[in-house]
Design goal:
globular, alpha/beta, about 220 residues, binds D-xylitol-5-phosphate, 8-stranded parallel beta sheet, binds zinc ion, 7 helices
């Protein structure tokens, strides 16, 4: 069964604790933590202290998406008991293999994200070593953007490769996901859905999570 990781980028930061507890109780499998530095992407979100402020609440584990330059300098900051995945961008890492090992050295699962213009082939020599590939289905930087359809083909390609080689990584999709295109990405082979605005806007986050979970 595919899983859901609501992105708190679209949450109401004035009551973040309540919101993460609400979505966790409603069935969110992970809390997607979107970290932006204003360099790798044209927006600044929040850093490790905000994530760590959620440690005291009963929530789903964290799926940390680092949209930052030099992620190797900050990996340790995002390691807490509740961190399950730490995901770095291929485009931000000169020494990707080293960063993957660094994440694993803290006992965490390592993921690599690909921007829409980056082909799957750049990961050929690393796929065996990673736990997750994040397919960006928008250009990273903002919530509420439109899904880029070529992401579906990338998910299919990754699914084909892992089946033929027997690799264990899961496939995550992030950007422009709503109830209307969830089935499409899942049947392409996606295991983990990120949704920001579709969870935190509109009806209540609780109702939105439940609607997603029904499809999943
Ligand atoms: C985009 C972020 C996404 C974003 C998703 O840069 O990585 O996680 O918050 O938001 P929606 O679901 O609104 O596209
Ligand atoms: Zn994200």
């Amino acid at each position: 069964m595919a899983k859901l990781a609501p992105s708190i980028l679209s949450a109401d930061f004035s009551c973040l604790g309540d919101q993460v507890m609400e979505i966790s109780k409603a069935g969110a499998d992970y809390i997607h933590i979107d970290v932006m530095d204003g360099h790798f992407v044209p927006n600044i979100s929040f850093g490790a202290p905000v994530m760590k402020s959620l440690d005291k609440f009963e929530t789903a584990p964290y799926d940390v998406h680092l949209m930052i330059e030099h992620p190797e300098k900050y990996i340790e900051d995002f390691v807490t008991e509740k961190t399950e995945y730490i995901v770095v961008h291929q485009e931000a890492c000169v020494h990707l293999h080293r960063v993957i090992q660094q994440i694993k050295s803290f006992g965490k699962k390592a993921g690599v994200a690909l921007n829409p213009a980056t082909p799957v082939s750049v990961l050929e020599y690393i796929l065996e070593d990673i736990d997750l590939v994040l397919v960006m289905s928008v250009n990273p930087g903002f919530g509420g953007q439109k899904f880029i359809p070529s992401a579906t083909g990338k998910i299919k390609e990754l699914d084909r490769i892992r089946k033929s080689k027997g690799y264990h990584f899961i496939i995550e999709v992030d950007g422009g996901i709503g109830l209307q295109n969830t089935e499409e990405v899942i049947s392409a082979g996606c295991d983990l859905i990120v949704a920001g605005s579709a969870v935190f806007k509109g009806k209540s986050p609780e109702a939105n999570v439940k609607a997603f979970k029904e499809i999943l």
